[in-house]
Backbone:
């Protein structure tokens, strides 16, 4: 059993990294600050700063722009709107997939580690669950990488968004910068990919109980 436990230290680290990476993935998905827009017209956007996320846009306003909102105004993306760029809808779908597959990876790793630390020497079962968990981690990391990279590219090239009038947003900012969600997503990608690689490196310990002479 000692050799079984000592052979899985890297996979235990993979589980820890995968857990943190999965948490950061969900944090990035729920954070509205994917893009930070700086606008010149402060009539409605009083602070001159608006946050564009993958689920909604928000800004601070001292005007009563919507019932129930005194200062912060948020408008959620409802359904499919042709004016909203593809990278936002792509991010919604891929991050949901990443969250689900990351959770599957954690589940598979927990099951494999449970067998290891309980001394269940089922080579094929343990190895397969570590491999499955590793593949889920890597797939989850790639699902986060695509929207993070795409949105980073859009920010770097100061791309505009033709928001409908109900959003109270200009079609293009004076300038924009990367919000907190993107670096959080990048860290999540690194951790998920590392956890996947560590899980795939598992090798079941070979023990020799007897020597057979020919």
Residues:
């Amino acid at each position: 059993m000692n050799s079984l436990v000592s052979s899985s230290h890297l996979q235990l680290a993979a589980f820890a990294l995968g857990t943190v990476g999965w948490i950061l993935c969900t944090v990035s998905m729920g954070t509205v600050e994917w893009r930070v827009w700086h606008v010149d017209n402060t009539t409605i956007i009083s602070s001159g700063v608006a946050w564009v996320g993958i689920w909604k846009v928000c800004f601070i306003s001292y005007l009563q722009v919507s019932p129930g909102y005194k200062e912060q105004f948020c408008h959620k993306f409802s359904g499919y709107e042709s004016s909203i760029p593809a990278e936002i809808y792509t991010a919604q779908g891929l991050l949901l997939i990443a969250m689900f597959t990351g959770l599957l990876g954690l589940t598979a790793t927990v099951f494999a580690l449970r067998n290891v630390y309980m001394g269940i020497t089922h080579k094929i079962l343990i190895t397969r669950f570590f491999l499955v968990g590793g593949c889920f981690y890597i797939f989850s990391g790639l699902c986060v990488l695509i929207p993070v990279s795409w949105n980073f590219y859009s920010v770097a090239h100061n791309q505009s968004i033709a928001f409908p009038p109900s959003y109270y947003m200009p079609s293009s900012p004076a300038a924009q910068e990367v919000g907190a969600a993107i670096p959080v997503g990048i860290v999540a990608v690194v951790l998920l990919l590392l956890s996947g690689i560590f899980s795939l490196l598992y090798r079941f310990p070979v023990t020799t109980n007897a020597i057979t002479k020919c």
The CA atoms of residues 29 and 95 lie 6 Å apart. The beta strands are 35-38, 49-52, 56-60, 72-76, 175-178.
